[in-house]
Amino acid sequence: LNNVDDYLGPSQACVNPLFTAPSKSANSTEAVVLGDGSNGTKKTKATVTLSDCLSCSGCVTSAEAVLMSHHSIEKLREPLQPKKLIVFTISAASLADLYRHLYLETEETEGDRDLSIFLNIEFGAKMVIDGILSQQISLLESAEEFCYRYKKQQVKNIIVTNKQSTPLPMLASSCPGFVCLVEKTAPKVVPLLSSVKSPMAVSGALLKNTTSSVNAVSNNSIYHVAIMPCHDKKLEAGRNDFAWERQTLLQYSNSASIINEVDLVLTTGELLEILTKAISTATATTTSEDEKYNDLELDTGIHGSGSYADFIFRFATRKLFGCTLPSDKPLPWKGSTSFSSSLASSEQSATSVLRFATAYGFKNVQLILQNLSKEKQTSNSMDSGYDYVEIMACPSGCPNGGGQIGSLGKRETPRETKERVRRTVSVVPVLRFNEYTKATVYEKDPFNDGCFGRTARRLLHTRFHVVP
Question: What region holds the Iron hydrogenase large subunit C-terminal domain (predicted)?
Answer without folding.
Answer: 86-402
